[in-house]
Design a protein that fits this description.
193 residues; NADH Oxidase; 9 helices; 44% helix
Length: 193
């Protein structure tokens, strides 16, 4: 099934990354609906390693402040929600429910490098799904990599052992009509072999 042109506009062509936010809130129900879409996206072996920490209160966002780069601080503090996109390096402990293939758990449990690489790669993929799901639900998304991952892990993730990957600010953006920044054309970014 192919989506119509308006869906493509919503997800890609007309979507923009905001730098300012309206005061319209993002409800917990919307965040639950968002995750219900994200969790259906494919990952290798259905490993589903992404973990999402939704910072929905000003207090939670203030706890994030020391980890943010100067250029990202105001954007994050003003966003209705900041999502810590993390990955669980022990994702394979859930295979009994997610992928019952015999001995799959032991394959990852015995190779730390493989499990960390798989968690990072597939967790990043799921973070991308979150951006698209947010757009599909009428939210704007601003991904960020300017932060100190060790600080985020110490403050928010230490109890679970999850690893911080990137941040996404969510909300309803103020759009000023600034044109999209340039993108590389097909011939520069792709090869047909």
């Amino acid at each position: 099934m192919q989506v119509d042109e308006s869906a493509l506009d919503c997800l890609f062509r007309e979507a923009r990354t905001p730098s300012r936010w309206t005061e319209e809130p993002v409800t917990d129900d919307t965040l639950r609906a968002l995750y219900d879409l994200v969790k259906t996206g494919p990952t290798s072996g259905n490993c589903c390693p992404a973990r999402f920490v939704f910072l929905t209160t000003q207090d939670a966002k203030e706890r994030l402040r020391p980890a943010l780069s100067a250029g990202n601080t105001e954007k994050a503090m003003m966003a209705p929600v900041v999502v810590i996109v993390a990955s669980d390096p022990l994702f394979f402990d859930y295979f009994s429910r997610l992928n019952p293939e015999p001995d799959l758990r032991s394959w990852f449990a015995s190779d730390v490098g493989l499990s960390e690489e798989t968690a990072f790669r597939n967790g990043t993929l799921q973070g991308g799904y979150l951006i698209l799901a947010a757009r599909a639900l009428g939210l704007d998304a601003l991904p960020m990599s300017g932060f100190d991952g060790a600080v985020v892990e110490d403050i928010f993730l230490a109890g679970d052992g999850w690893r911080a990957n990137f941040l996404i600010c969510l909300g309803h953006g103020e759009h000023d009509g600034t044109p999209r920044a340039a993108r590389l054309p097909f011939d520069e970014a792709c090869r047909l072999l």
